[in-house]
Amino acid sequence: MSTTNLAVIPGDGIGPEVTAEALKVLEVAAPVKFEQTRYDLGAERYLATGEVLPESVLAEIKEQDAILLGAVGGKPNDPNLPPGILERGLLLKLRFELDHYVNLRPSRLFPGATSPLSQAVLDKGEIDFVVVREGTEGLYTGNGGAMRVGTPHEVATETSVNTAYGVERVVRDAFARAQARPRKKLTLVHKTNVLVNAGSLWWRITQQVAEEFPDVTVDYLHIDAVMIFLATDPSRFDVIVTDNIFGDIITDLAAAITGGIGLAASGNINSSREFPSMFEPVHGSAPDIAGQQKADPTAAILSGALLLEHLGHLEAAAAIDAAVLADLSERGTSPRTTSEVGDAIAARVAG
Amino acid sequence: MSTTNLAVIPGDGIGPEVTAEALKVLEVAAPVKFEQTRYDLGAERYLATGEVLPESVLAEIKEQDAILLGAVGGKPNDPNLPPGILERGLLLKLRFELDHYVNLRPSRLFPGATSPLSQAVLDKGEIDFVVVREGTEGLYTGNGGAMRVGTPHEVATETSVNTAYGVERVVRDAFARAQARPRKKLTLVHKTNVLVNAGSLWWRITQQVAEEFPDVTVDYLHIDAVMIFLATDPSRFDVIVTDNIFGDIITDLAAAITGGIGLAASGNINSSREFPSMFEPVHGSAPDIAGQQKADPTAAILSGALLLEHLGHLEAAAAIDAAVLADLSERGTSPRTTSEVGDAIAARVAG
Ligand SMILES: CC(C)[C@H](C(=O)O)[C@@H](O)C(=O)O
Ligand SMILES: CC(C)[C@H](C(=O)O)[C@@H](O)C(=O)O
């Protein structure tokens, strides 16, 4: 059995609990041995040491094959935790340093999951789409500034930076994913009627790359129109490709309509494989229920499946997927502990 | 009876039909006489003359007391109509030239309207909130550019520009609206954890202005969290204040969850009253059903009510509102023509 080096960042709150279950399932499913290195990054370490992501730790992580992250974030409004410090100093820093240009977020309405949408909307068709969100450009580049701060004359700017290089690689990745799916449909989402510069670039590159994928159907929607379709007919979507901020917004709505972020998995992927990719549940650290074995580890477990898929272990990934599906279909109403859910899914995978 | 000078821009597609009904109801309801001047702006005029918004027309419109707009926009993919030309050259141009810094979009789930949300979500409480979207700053200022266009080295930028002046006036307007509502609650929406410069400005000014409105409860949500709440518990919102692009995104989702943009009214308001404000339904020109008396004029009629409210005719505005509510509650399943709906609502207002 070959060995895969896995960086594990359990994080804060419920992070360690759900990560433990994801690892439990990964170990049963994977055809490789994971050599784990744990990194205690997150709110706790910051509060204890003032460190968010030391350069030496980043250098070590860069040498791993993949990263599994639980969730980071301290107690809401902790005066010792400056707002945004973990988001920018850790989560976004990893995305940028490891060039995670594909932020992958599958959205499926799982059996047994409760959607906030009406039966009439759900009857329109199955909800099963993937959002390919660009992860290294746009409004997330920190290209902003402010002058006369705190005065009545303050001006504050945020610049969305988009490059042909950056757009093309993520659009190509999205086309390849669309081509591999039964419906082979790609929807570009932007706001070309207002953001003419960035919009033209995204539009033009999508048209260009489309020529390499003649079997993929392409359409375009403004971000505001996407809101309407996600609420009234989400079955129309197959693969969505969009920029960093629109992707952030779309994926939370997508998670909500498919039963909540408790089930949403995600991958921060460097498709060119120069750096390790990172997989994490979309949910946060939920400090209010931490340590009580109340958290649902399903999103973390599904993130493990995305990790296996990325590493090329397609059968193992499919086995986790199937086990989660079966578990969800048969979930009763009596609550299980975090590790009971992990055990049940691991048992199905071992099956 | 005093006279109010009203610019009427019926526009394209179903615009003229719904505008006719809005005027019909306005004339019955208003305690003033409207002196109407019609402007044939829109796709048709552009296609015939190449003109979008001539300076002389703009100058005339600036002298009016208020503007009622139907909808503008030609046939989809008309090769003679460059994409975005009417949006930027007419709609956004009017917002900027007339300093419409308050883009007001009420969202109510009307009786008889069909929401795409499940009964379980609707049972959480009444959906009745207002979005105050900033209309003259942010990503809509056209502060972007591109270099090496069309090459693999293209860089395209879009800059969100936010000023203390611009943020403060719209935030203050939103607080005043919150104070006038029973729940007196204001939610600031931004993405402060990523957009630190603009986010700090919005946050700081909201805290400052809050001191003038001690009876208003203030909270804050990231734009992505708003997506989740709009899908799972929209009753939590009362007044939302946010920037131009987030407001664009939120209001389309808000319209969708309250039964569709067929009922959504909006005002582009210059609260300082230096320029006339403009009122319009949120829907587009729907060229596919134009001229067939199939369009629902309700959103245009409700936009007329917002116009009256802005001009200070609160009772007349409330009368239209009540008439629309009654009409919606008693709508059967047999379709009525556009003018039948207008007649019915006008009769209730008169009655
Ligand atoms: C925590 C935050 C910086 C992050 C983002 O905006 O990308 C989160 O919302 C996400 O979607 O992963
Ligand atoms: C047509 C477009 C420019 C406009 C906007 O983005 O503001 C529209 O979507 C709206 O919400 O009024």
TrEMBL record, chains A, B:
Residues 5-345 form the Isopropylmalate dehydrogenase-like domain. The keyword Repeat does not apply. Substrate binds at R95, R105, R133, D224. Pathway: Amino-acid biosynthesis; L-leucine biosynthesis; L-leucine from 3-methyl-2-oxobutanoate: step 3/4. Keywords: Amino-acid biosynthesis, Branched-chain amino acid biosynthesis, Cytoplasm, Leucine biosynthesis, Magnesium, Manganese, Metal-binding, NAD, Oxidoreductase. Its main location: cytoplasm. It catalyses: (2R,3S)-3-isopropylmalate + NAD(+) = 4-methyl-2-oxopentanoate + CO2 + NADH. NAD(+) binds at G284, S285, A286, P287, D288, I289, A290, G291, Q292, Q293, K294, A295, D296. Belongs to the isocitrate and isopropylmalate dehydrogenases family. LeuB type 2 subfamily. This is 3-isopropylmalate dehydrogenase. It comes from Nocardioides luteus. The gene is leuB.
